Amino acid sequence: MPVVPLEAGASPDNPPCPACGEPLFGWIDERPGLAGPVSRCESCGLGVVAAPGSTEEALAELDRLGGDGTATIPSRAAFSAWIGGAGWAGLESGSRYLFSVEAVRRLVAHRDQVVRRARWVPLASVVAMWQTVLNGFTFGRNIALGALGRSPAVPAAARWQRRLDGLITVAVAIPAMLFAVPIELASAALRRGSVIRLRFELL
Fold first, then answer.
1. How many structural domains are present in the chain?
2. Quick one: which of 6, 38, 37, 36 has its CA closest to 23?
3. CA 127 to CA 118: how far, in whole Å?
4. Does 119 map to a domain?
5. Which domain holds residue 140?
């Protein structure tokens, strides 16, 4: 059976990825708290909310996630992103680019940098997996992280839904954590942890 290259899918509906130039394909439709539908690159894993923008814009957002040659990313290549989909905790309100380690490698190469180190961040990763699990039970998104001041929450539209989300979050918090810890540990062992700290340097 012949292999069809990804570039064969390039079209106005599948614009090029800002990191690697391969076509972007649809992933998640438009949701509250997001500027538009979410697309993803099948080659490097970058996720893009609404219009893809430029390489420079993606690099600028990456720089806002760290400083002094580092960045801490909710990884779009994480197992939590795969199981969470539209409920992934890394799909934060106001997000434009959703980075993977490979996407960061491709992006920083445009300014003659390389990723020297990529380390899993245990506590932040477990919390991200926990919130992803909780998002599967609530109408809104990232309710617990919003209450803790860790991430902007996206509340449900109706008042009764918001009230119910608060009750659900409290009731499910401990069982969700008991599920999240072993799943995230297994994900990290497979190099698909939820939160990754990167260090990059000039060539």
1. 1
2. 6
3. 19
4. yes
5. 6-202
CB atoms inside a 10 Å sphere around CB 170 = 12
Q: How would you class 49 by CB atoms within 10 Å of its CB: exposed for 0-12, middle for 13-18, buried for 19 or more?
A: buried
203 residues of the chain, pLDDT tens digit each: 444 455 555 566 799 999 999 999 999 999 999 999 999 999 999 999 999 999 999 999 999 999 889 999 999 999 999 999 999 999 998 889 999 999 999 999 999 999 999 999 999 999 999 999 999 999 999 999 999 998 899 999 999 999 999 999 999 999 999 999 999 999 999 999 999 999 999 98
The H or E element spanning position 160 is: helix 159-189
- Sheet strand arrangement including 38-41: 24-28, 38-41, 47-49, 97-98
